[in-house]
Amino acid sequence: MRIGIVGHGTMGREVEAVLAERGHQPVIVTRGRPFPAGCTVGIDFSAAEAVPGNVANALKAGARYVVGTTGWAERLAEVRAAVEEAGGGLVHAANFSLGVNLFYRVVREAAALLTRFPDYDPYVLERHHRRKKDAPSGTAKALAAILEAAGGRRRKAATALDGAIAEDSFHVASLRAGGIVGDHTVGFDSGGDEILLEHRARSRRGFALGAVLAAEWISSRTGFYAFDAVLEDLARS
Ligand SMILES: NC(=O)c1ccc[n+]([C@@H]2O[C@H](COP(=O)([O-])OP(=O)(O)OC[C@H]3O[C@@H](n4cnc5c(N)ncnc54)[C@H](OP(=O)(O)O)[C@@H]3O)[C@@H](O)[C@H]2O)c1
């Protein structure tokens, strides 16, 4: 397949390599130009503010789309409406790593168990490289949403603290330094002990592979999907 790469930065170059490995033809999409005719799908690792416009361009060209770019959650409903109205197809994820998506499941199960033991305060800690533009990471927000949905004593995510943490809240903290690819920790601390669940990304290839799998999957479908729907389907087939 000819697959357009929208945003040819660190992640775009990883996607280019994985596409070539899997026998696809990568096409670098130039910023400000229409989405190229003849590309079945576009894969977007660009900038949050560019996502709605990039999706509109791909829809105009009749292409399916995969969004790996993070930080555009508040425009999700608008983008979804545009895709559905056009009869297009889109897969999005704040984290396309297979391991992270399995980690979400582990955290969901742990949170369901630990909410029955209110001595254990949950928290989320994410660590990334100094260049990352959004904080907390989209993955940390997804982990916080899992903890919120579990409905324990501390069920509200607090990302900015101005004094002591509220009784009904849990802390979601971000750290930026050097070249950390992406670490996410979910902890449950009772004061006397602590249970830690952790995912560490060692390279960016895992993210690129997930995005390419999503592109292959959406190429023959319509609709608006999160990556976990794709994984569910791939796991069944
Ligand atoms: N979902 C996941 O699994 C996952 C994994 C890693 C990263 N990400 C996200 O992916 C995004 C990109 O990360 P990155 O590390 O690759 O960043 P990066 O190295 O800064 O690359 C971003 C690229 O997008 C280009 N760009 C910026 N604005 C654009 C626009 N309006 N239209 C088209 N291209 C544009 C930039 O070009 P210039 O340099 O010319 O501005 C650059 O080439 C971030 O949102 C990051 O959080 C997601």
Helices and strands: which structural class?
alpha/beta
Oligomerization category of the chains in this entry: single chain
Please name the CATH architecture of the largest domain. Answer: 3-Layer(aba) Sandwich
Bound small molecules, which ones? Answer: NADP nicotinamide-adenine-dinucleotide phosphate
Global morphology: elongated
Mean of residue pLDDT values: 96
| Order of secondary-structure elements | EHEEHEHEHEHEEEEHEH
The CATH superfamily label of the largest domain reads: NAD(P)-binding Rossmann-like Domain
CATH class call of the largest domain: Alpha Beta
Q: What fold name stands as the CATH topology of the largest domain?
A: Rossmann fold
Number of DSSP helical runs: 7
The N- and C-terminal alpha carbons lie at a distance of 21 Å
* Fraction of residues in helix: 25-40%
Largest sheet geometry:
6 strands, parallel
Question: What is the rounded Rg?
Answer: 19 Å
pLDDT under 50 segments (min length 5)? none
* DSSP summary, beta strand count: 11
Order of adjacent strands in the largest pleated sheet: 2-1-3-4-5-11
State which percent range the strand residues make up: 15-25%
